[in-house]
Amino acid sequence: MKFRHAFLCFSMFISAMGAGLFAADEIHISYTQMRPNLFMLEGAGGNMVLCRGEDGLFLVDDQVSAVSEKVKKAIKAIEPGPLRFILNTHWHHDHTGGNEYFRKGGTLTVAHRNVRKRMMKKNVVEALKRELEASPEGALPVITFSKEMTWHYNGEEIQIYHVPNAHTDGDSIVFFKTSNVVHMGDVFFNGLYPLIDYSSGGTIKGMISAVKRVLKHVDSDTQIVPGHGPLGTKWDLVTYLQMLEHVRDKVSAMKKQGKKLSEIKAAKITAEWDATWGTKWLTPDQFIEIAYRSI
Ligand SMILES: [Zn+2]
């Protein structure tokens, strides 16, 4: 069941990136209560965080458009009341697909300014060989920011900051400081090799810097929500950083020596990580190629 769920999520992720049809009917939106006022929701696309309280509901990311109705119902089952704000951690359709649907219900969408810029035009995600059409006007974030902002909302101090050129050029980290919960968007894939969308400005160097910045502010009690994969801890993030640094060091050294991509793949530099990171989505070879092209 778990595997099937994971499979559906990732086939939905691929579909969201433009690959075709999927079985939205089979998707169930499940949730985990992390703190009295904070929930992690999973379904089809990037993980979501729901923050409830007196000021009104606030959602981080909204998955693919095909499941918007289900996301709405799942939120209602947790807490009735209007969804006032959605923050998009980046532009990919498996994190912004519900924007237009919720906007019709009066929800305001917030994101880094590069998210809006990218959603206004057609994009190619080279790493997945996908072409994505521009988003409709109603899906575009209505509030944008450039570096960082702090919200005092629902009794939480929420720090939202941009991490440059990481998974894309418009990634936000959302840190619920009062509750010690952080949503990292696709800067963190927990237990699977990450996509670095180098055609949207992503780099492995930026991913590493972003993870290091987050690590400065977390402790062993922090709940860390990845864009994909299960809820994580500081130690999951530390392991992820070690894997990223290992791959960056090896690939850049071999690239400097003039090795071809095929030779770097053949060197099996990720062998020690493959059983944990390379079986659920991107294969080791795909990840090496992405790292190579993002250096
Ligand atoms: Zn993404």
TrEMBL record:
Keyword Repeat on entry: no
Entry keyword Signal: yes
Any single GO BP term: antibiotic catabolic process
InterPro entries linked: Metallo-B-lactamas, NDM-1-like, RibonucZ/Hydroxyglut_hydro
Keywords: Signal
Leader sequence segment: 1-23
Domain Metallo-beta-lactamase: 45-228
CDD domains (alphabetical): metallo-hydrolase-like_MBL-fold
Family that this chain belongs to: Belongs to the metallo-beta-lactamase superfamily. Class-B beta-lactamase family.
PANTHER family: ACYL-COENZYME A THIOESTERASE MBLAC2 (PTHR42951:SF4), METALLO-BETA-LACTAMASE DOMAIN-CONTAINING (PTHR42951)
UniProt protein name: MBL fold metallo-hydrolase
Organism field: Sulfidibacter corallicola
